[in-house]
Amino acid sequence: MPATARQRAAVVVAGLLVVLSLGLPWTTSSQTYVPGWMAPSMCIPTADGTIWCSGSFLSPGFMTGSAALSGAGSVARVFLVGALVLIVVAWVRREHRWLGLAGAGLAVAVLLAGLTALGGQIAACAAALLLIYAALSPRPPAAA
Fold this sequence. Notes:
Blueprint: H1 5-23, E1 32-34, E2 37-39, E3 43-45, E4 51-53, E5 57-59, E6 62-64, H2 77-93, H3 97-113, H4 119-136
Helix pairs in contact: 1-2, 1-4, 2-3, 3-4
């Protein structure tokens, strides 16, 4: 557990940001609509005075590509959950060295997902900065 109240607050806010980033979008949608087409029927008069019509054909459109993914559906979820576990371990065992690893894991998650500056990635970057702050800020001297 971090020593000062400011460090504890940074760790709590970072944990909440990691949980929030699991639900926020991490990738944009690459779905495109391929429109369908229609072959209309064709009618021609015949020699006996009747009209012959061919059948028409309708092809429906379809979607191709992938939908937008949240943090829970992207490849970054492994590192997000891992960072959350490291935050809990650091809090319970009162060892701040795990916080730096959690911050580095969040940075790797952002790099793996690709830099798109969406809400989930921004929340994860903010959490990484808070965790690195809490890990690297000086500790008060221990009481003798």
